[in-house]
Specification:
The protein is mainly beta and about 200 residues long. The protein has 1 helix and 11 strands; from the N terminus they run E-E-E-E-E-E-E-E-E-H-E-E. The relative contact order is 0.15.
Length: about 200
Amino acid sequence: MRCELVGPGVYELSGFLRGRQGSAHAIRAPHPAGSRIVKLDQRLARAKIGAHEWGEALMFIAPPAEAPATSNRTETAVAVLSHAAVRPWAPAHLRAIRDGSGDVLITWVRCAHIRGDSWAAGDPPVGFPREEYVLEILDGGDAIRVETSSVPSFEYSAAAQTADFGSLPGSLHIRVAQVGESGATGLNIELTITL
């Protein structure tokens, strides 16, 4: 990333790496020009949250840089934190290809929390005790078919498509999420693919 001072108190930011460390869901609605940013540097402190504190109302006190907590500019906030850091990241590279018989092969690539930045060939590690995904076929925002898969693919047969839509559709609106250790689904990828 590059940060260039272009005027008094005005910076131009460019060269971002998008979607790093499970943040792809946050780029769906880009921020408009002129939005405020928060500079993260070595002064950033990680809150030490115990397992018993997830889901509880916690008070955070944030004084200005190098000021005491008693400063009149100190901000306080109460937040209830979900255990979002352990949820699976959204899968990537969602694709769907129809073959000559009308069946559609839907594939995706999982995104890994641990050791997932390798440039080597092959899929990233699962990162959970078992590999499981929930795939939804949507029609007007409603799920008309929900399937689970233990591999990053699903074959949507021509017969199932006809049962769901009355005929073979020209496009599919698909949503896929990986299932985490707790059994809850993580972030999802959602895409309409023309066949």
